[in-house]
Each structure stands twice: as structure tokens, then as C-alpha cells.
Specification:
With 339 residues, the protein is α/β, with parallel strands linked by helices. 32% of the residues lie in helices and 24% in strands. The chain has a single domain, classed as P-loop containing nucleotide triphosphate hydrolases (Rossmann fold), CATH 3.40.50.300. The chain is globular, with a radius of gyration of 21 Å. It binds adenosine-5'-triphosphate, iron/sulfur cluster and magnesium ion.
């Protein structure tokens, strides 16, 4: 094993193994009517200090995956290891510690994420109080420091205000400040700029990138905007119907996409939209499948132009490395299929 690979193994912060997050459906709220398989067998490692982007169409399970990593959804099956410890084995106090101090969450809608009847001061003090910081002086100093880090200065102009008194960009800075105040090791940013004016998106992404580099944060960045991925991330995961179908370094994926779904997404991004964001709202043709009764074999097969009859519709593809550290779950690259 090379020295680089050994170091990478040492740096693994979060290990997701065969993760399943299913939601039970109940008919009229009573009888069992199946499961929504939002995350269905996902595995990856996240290293300290790296930024990974997760892309995929609406409803493919991105937020469910992130909420499981944040400790907000219990895995139905599989595991999430943090520094080698299985989250499933945390008791209530340890889970609170994990959730409050080790992971931060930047939501898509900053206004919805902030309690409307609390001042910014109170919002930022809350995690410190929950985290047991008893000294009012220390809390004040930490609030000041984080306000400077997110460039809400002078802090005294913002701290007495309520969320509705701030602009969308300022609200998102408060959300980022709240996520950062306990010094987390992992930050999950779930479409952090998609609801903001185009004019402030770049500033917020620059802020997040700056914080990531300064604090050696591991960041998971969910986005529909592929034009920001190479600026923000070192690796990219493509998610389809509850599975990660391609995992790669960003450059390698953009230059040499392997999965037909990724290829279709990239084709669909050639024209920037009105806000100059390269998104994939319109492609590929067809609908994503039901997550209650997903198609057999490769879940993309009903939409795939390169489907191999009798294989893709029957056998679940496994990850194949098509170049170093570039994995694709597709039968096109796998000679082990049972033709
Ligand atoms: N708490 C829940 N209970 C039941 N079903 C849920 C729950 N949360 C999510 N789902 C379902 O799981 C699937 C995946 O949803 P999820 O929000 O993870 O997708 P997403 O990729 O984040 O979508 P978007 O891009 O629109 O945010 C969807 O079918 C959704 O309706
Ligand atoms: S496994 Fe088959 S159906 Fe799925 S993406 Fe590859 S070629 Fe298409
Ligand atoms: Mg989502």
C-alpha cells in the first residue's frame, strides 16, 4: 500500500457502510404499506479536511443520507462510523455531544432554519448553553469570534436583531455561524445557496470554502449546481434512486464520466440557466423511479440508452474502478456479469 493511501486511511473521519435509510409507509396512518427506500446500500469514506459534493435529481435521497450522517435518522441497516465509533452505539448523551459539537448543518432555507422569535445573539448562544459553556463571558467571546468569521460585522449591529430583519445572505451567514460555533469536524451543507439571490451565492460559497480550509473541515456539499462543484469540492458522488452510482475526483469525473446517468447529467448542464447556474433540471429524459418499488437490477435501466438486456434489468451492478479512485456502478465496465 502506498504512503499516500496509508495516510488517507488514517485520515478517515466518517465511514458509511452499506447504509440503508427506509421510511415506513402506512395506509391511512395504520396498516403497513411498504417502505420508501430513500438510501439503499450506500458506502463511502469521508476524510478529515476534504470537501465532497453530492449531486442527483430531486428525491434521490441526498438529504436523507445527510440527515443520517448528522444523527437525525437511524440507519435501517448498515452503519455510520465516526472516528471509528458506530453511531448506533452512542447513548443519548454521546449522540447529543456528537450532534451538538462534532457535526454542523447548513440548511437550504436559512429563514426556515432560524427560530423566528429568537435574537441572533440567543440563536448563537443556544448551542453553547446546550454544550455546557456556563460562563456568559466565554459565550459572548465565542459569539463575537464566530460573527467575525462569517463577516457579520460589527457584531453589535446584528446580535439584537431577529432573523426577519436580515437579508437572505445575512441569514445564511447566521446559519453558518451557528453550525460553526462549537468547532465541528464535519459540515453538511444541503444546497446552501440555492434559495439565495444570485448576487450573494458566490460570497457564501467563498465563505464556506474559506472556513473549510481554515478549520480543516470535512464538508459534504449537496448541490444541483454543477458549475460550483469544481470550485468547492475535491470529490464528487453522483446519487440516483437511493444509490451512489459514481464516486470520483471532480476533474476525473468531469473529464471522463463513466456512468450513463452522469453523462446525461453533464450533457444537461451545457446551457447555464437564467442565474448562470449550470443545473440539470431537465435531463435525463424519463422520470426517476419509485423508491417504494424500485426497478430490478440497475435502477437506471428504464432510462438508460445503453441498457444490456437480460443483465441490467436483472442484476444489481457493483462498484468498478475505471481509473484510480474513480468508481462506477455499471455493467458496461464489469466482465463478471452473468450474461
Ligand atoms: N421523513 C420522511 N418520511 C417519509 N418519506 C421521506 C422522509 N424524508 C424523505 N422521504 C422520502 O425519501 C425520498 C428521498 O427524499 P430526500 O429528501 O432525501 O431527497 P433529496 O435528494 O434530498 O431531494 P431534493 O433534491 O428535492 O431535496 C423522497 O421520496 C422523500 O419523499
Ligand atoms: S448498468 Fe446497464 S442500465 Fe445501468 S447504467 Fe449501466 S448500462 Fe445503463
Ligand atoms: Mg434534499
Amino acid at each position: 500500500m502506498s504512503a499516500e493511501l496509508k495516510q488517507e486511511e488514517k485520515d478517515i473521519l466518517v465511514s458509511v457502510r452499506d447504509l440503508h435509510v427506509w421510511f415506513e409507509l402506512r395506509r391511512w396512518g395504520f396498516s403497513h404499506a411498504g417502505y420508501v427506500r430513500a438510501v439503499d446500500g450506500v458506502s463511502f469514506d469521508l476524510h478529515a479536511g476534504e470537501a465532497v459534493a453530492v449531486v442527483g435529481e430531486s428525491g434521490c435521497g441526498k438529504s436523507s443520507l445527510m440527515r443520517a450522517i448528522l444523527g437525525l435518522h437511524k440507519p435501517t441497516k448498515g452503519s455510520i462510523l465516526f472516528n471509528g465509533e458506530d453511531l448506533a452505539e452512542y447513548d443519548v448523551a454521546k449522540m447529543r455531544w456528537y450532534h451538538n459539537t462534532q457535526v454542523g448543518y447548513v440548511q437550504q432555507d436559512p429563514f426556515g432554519a432560524l427560530p423566528p422569535f429568537m435574537t441572533i445573539q440567543r440563536i448563537l448562544e443556544e448551542p453553547l448553553i446546550v454544550g455546557g459553556v456556563r460562563s456568559a463571558e466565554e459565550r459572548e467571546a465565542r459569539v463575537q469570534k464566530v460573527m467575525e468569521e462569517v463577516r457579520l460585522i460589527p457584531a453589535r449591529d446584528f446580535l439584537p436583531k431577529y432573523p426577519h430583519m436580515l437579508s437572505g445572505g445575512q441569514q445564511q451567514r447566521v446559519v453558518i455561524a451557528r453550525a460553526m460555533i462549537m468547532g465541528p469536524k464535519v459540515l453538511v451543507a444541503d444546497e446552501p445557496v440555492s434559495m439565495l439571490d444570485a448576487s450573494v451565492r458566490v460570497e457564501i460559497l467563498k465563505l464556506l470554502r474559506g472556513l473549510q480550509e481554515k478549520h480543516n473541515l470535512a464538508v459534504i456539499y449537496i448541490t444541483h449546481d454543477l458549475s460550483t462543484v469544481s470550485y468547492f469540492s475535491e470529490r464528487i458522488f453522483v446519487m440516483y434512486a437511493g444509490n451512489l452510482v459514481e464516486k470520483s475526483k471532480v476533474r476525473s469525473l468531469l473529464n471522463n464520466p463513466g456512468h450513463p446517468y452522469t453523462m446525461a447529467l453533464l450533457t444537461g448542464t451545457s446551457e447555464p440557466d437564467a442565474n448562470n447556474a449550470k443545473t440539470f433540471k431537465e435531463l435525463p429524459p424519463g422520470e426517476p423511479p419509485s423508491l417504494v418499488n424500485p426497478p430490478a437490477g440497475c435502477r437506471f435501466h428504464p432510462r438508460c440508452s445503453r441498457v444490456i438486456a437480460g443483465v441490467c434489468d436483472a442484476q444489481i451492478p457493483v462498484d468498478i474502478e475505471i481509473e484510480p479512485r474513480h468508481q462506477v456502478a455499471c455493467w458496461l465496465y464489469n466482465n463478471a456479469r452473468a450474461d
